[in-house]
Amino acid sequence: QVQLVESGGGLVQAGGSLRLSCAASGSFFSINTMGWYRQAPGKQRELVANMTSGNGTHHVNSVKGRFTISRDNAKNTVYLQMNRLKPEDTAVYYCNAVATIMPEKLFTFWGQGTQVTVSS
Length: 120
Fold this sequence. Notes:
- By secondary structure, the protein is mainly β.
- The chain contains no helices and 11 strands.
């Protein structure tokens, strides 16, 4: 199995920055796709950004120009650089990964979440 551990969340003033990190460990051949989701109180979990194994990236419109996803494949780690944070960015942020754990078999894994709170 694969374990995903997020770090880097916290409390920040509006306009500030945070960098989230998610490290994958366990038994797998490779990590194919990694991404970040978030869930605010009373709302559904939503995609923030993801990155394919071919290094293609996607960011939702609400964070384009402010957030940047990146990967370090040697460390099996994905990052989310969050700049010019807004109060509406407040949520629990979850790391997501699709991993190959057997030949031609893909599985989806989730981290435990890290809280990001942006004060006005």
